[in-house]
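Format notes (please read before filing issues)

Several people have asked whether sequences and structure tokens are stored in separate files. They are not. Every record keeps both together, in the order shown below: the sequence lines, then the token lines. Line labels are part of the format and must not be stripped during preprocessing.
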Amino acid sequence: MESKKRRPPINITIGNKSFELRTSSEFEEELIRKAAKLVTEQIEYRMTNKKGEVNLEEILSMVCLDATVARLKGDYDLRILKEDVFKNLDTIQNNFQSTT
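Then the structure lines:
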């Protein structure tokens, strides 16, 4: 059995904290780097637009909430899209069968 080469760890920064992570592919590395960048941008945005005392725990909680809501919305949109596609396929199949 051929052994896979282990990818070297990558370093990412979220906020002001660095993390060393291992990825299974270049694609996964790209996703992680993009995600870390987006999270850092959201943290910075919230910190600069926050009135009063900056509470990092509160900011991180809101960034996590925003990301989770976006994920759930994406999941919902995908489900609706799949339902529409299958409904249209059924219509096409029924129309095709009625003409043959």
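For reference, the curators noted about this record: DSSP finds two helices and two strands in the chain. The first helix runs from residue 26 to 49.
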